[in-house]
Write a structure and sequence with these properties.
With about 400 residues, the protein is of the alpha/beta class. The chain has helices at about 45-60, 75-85, 100-115, 130-135, 155-160, 185-200, 255-265, 270-285, 285-310, 340-350, 380-395, and strands spanning about 30, 95-100, 120-125, 140-145, 150, 170, 200-205, 230-235, 245-250, 320, 325-330, 350-355, 355, 370-375. It contains eleven helices and 14 strands. Helix 1 (about 45-60) crosses helix 8 (about 270-285), helix 3 (about 100-115) runs parallel beside helix 4 (about 130-135) and helix 10 packs across helix 11 (about 380-395). Bound molecules: 4'-deoxy-4'-aminopyridoxal-5'-phosphate (PMP). The site of 4'-deoxy-4'-aminopyridoxal-5'-phosphate has 14 residues, from helix 3. 4'-deoxy-4'-aminopyridoxal-5'-phosphate binds next to helix 3. Its cofactor is pyridoxal 5'-phosphate.
């Protein structure tokens, strides 16, 4: 059996946390709250096309040569300057590494830090793609609950006291995927103090930080870092286009050297032609103005989602009220299995889909939650979908 030759991390009997997330409902009236994709009607296609032409015209054949392994220096400088505006993450392009999406940045950090069995803390629920990347290194997970203002620091400290070997904490502090929750500034600072005291690395993953509907981005956790133990990760996927596959990380010297070592082995360098085009796009266009257009759309969609949940869901279901991003998180009464509900009742009767909570827990052991993504749907469709979903939830709760 060829399967016997595979590494444990690739064992197909244990599917990737990212596989099987979405149900495919061929019904023409189907409404999906499942996929967490940005709204493609908002992609600046013509401007990006012009930017590719500009980059190619300017550099010709040289553009298609191997390039800097950390990524295009001009683009790194622009990203560093942009993040420098909202709390000093860095203003130094030498501390920035361009990656193939934020996803590769997460995977590189995992690869640089984790031996089999190493202890890792994650918020629960957490981003399913981070679980997929971390899972490859077969860590021992400790879940830490989220509160309305972010990770429960008391619970984290208790966990750290019990398990002093924890070496990595993964967190999504801004408009968290899957819950929409944002970590308070006070907690960001306290979290760094805990990392210093208990000697662990923080992986701060923040692809949604620009998408606060009413507020400018909060200071990143990394802005409180005094010991070079926070790696900051972000991405252009949610504010420009995901298929550009351009994410980036910021790390200080020691961790940066380790990350670059594993990056060279993985892919030598990321997509240099695309980086030059993005640099040309940022020179010719105002990204902040584009982000404001996105925020205007997502704000309206989120309001429609929250209003519909209030109208159509039973009182004993709780939901978050996000201040940015793409997601709302619903907690159903204990005992209701959101996965079984989706499969047995919601898909056949209402043709609506979502991602059940088990996917967002490292041990797949919490069943009564669900993630709803509103980014791709109009307010009318959101209202109709939540109405249909609410009927099924009510029936299940009152059965
Ligand atoms: N982190 C989080 C929290 C995400 O939601 C996503 C995308 N769903 C990513 C990282 C990775 O996105 P990308 O690789 O497209 O930058």
């Amino acid at each position: 059996m060829l399967k016997d030759l595979l590494a444990t991390r690739a064992n197909p009997d244990v599917p990737s946390a990212l596989s099987g997330l979405f149900t495919n409902d061929p019904d023409p009236s189907a409404i999906s709250f499942a996929a967490g994709s940005p709204n493609e009607s908002l992609f600046p296609v013509a401007a990006v096309q012009r930017a590719f032409n500009t980059a190619i015209a300017k550099q010709g054949a040289h553009l298609f040569q191997y390039q800097n392994p950390q990524g295009n220096p001009a683009l790194r400088a622009k990203l560093a300057a942009r993040i420098g505006k909202w709390g000093q993450v860095t203003t130094d392009a030498d501390h920035v590494v361009l990656t193939v999406g934020g996803q590769q940045a997460i995977e590189l950090v995992a690869k640089a830090l984790l031996n089999v069995g190493d202890e890792v803390a994650v918020e629960v629920p957490t981003y399913v793609g981070a679980l997929a990347a971390l899972d490859l290194y077969q860590p021992t997970y400790y879940g830490v609950d989220l509160q309305a203002d972010g990770i429960d620091l008391d619970q984290l400290e208790t966990t750290l006291k019990r398990h002093p070997g924890i070496k990595l904490l993964y967190t999504v502090p801004d408009f968290h995927n899957p819950t929409g929750i944002t970590m308070s500034v006070a907690k960001r600072e306290q979290l760094v103090a805990l990392a210093n005291r208990y000697d662990f690395i923080i992986l701060e993953d923040s692809p949604y930080r620009d998408l606060g509907y009413e507020q400018a981005p909060l200071p990143a956790i990394k802005s409180f870092d005094t010991e070079g133990r926070v790696v900051f990760v972000s991405s252009l996927s949610k504010i420009l286009m995901p298929a550009l596959r351009t994410g980036w990380l910021v790390a200080d010297d020691e961790l940066l050297a380790a990350i670059m070592k594993v990056r060279l082995a993985s892919d030598l360098e990321a997509t240099g032609v695309t980086h030059a085009a993005i640099d040309a796009y940022l020179t010719a266009n105002d990204l902040d103005a584009h982000v404001n257009v996105l925020k205007d759309h997502y704000r309206v969609q989120c309001a429609a989602m929250v209003a519909a949940l209030g109208k159509y869901f039973p009182d004993d279901a709780q939901f978050t009220t996000p201040a940015g991003g793409f997601f709302d998180w619903v907690t159903l009464p204990a005992g209701i299995d959101a996965g079984a509900l989706l499969h047995d009742q919601v898909t056949p009767n209402a043709h609506v889909s979502y991602v059940p909570s088990t996917n967002f827990y490292p041990n797949r052991d919490v069943h009564n939650g669900l993630r709803l993504c509103f980014s791709g749907l109009t307010p009318t469709v959101i209202d109709a979908g939540i109405h249909r979903l609410g009927e099924q939830v009510k029936a299940a709760v009152h059965e």
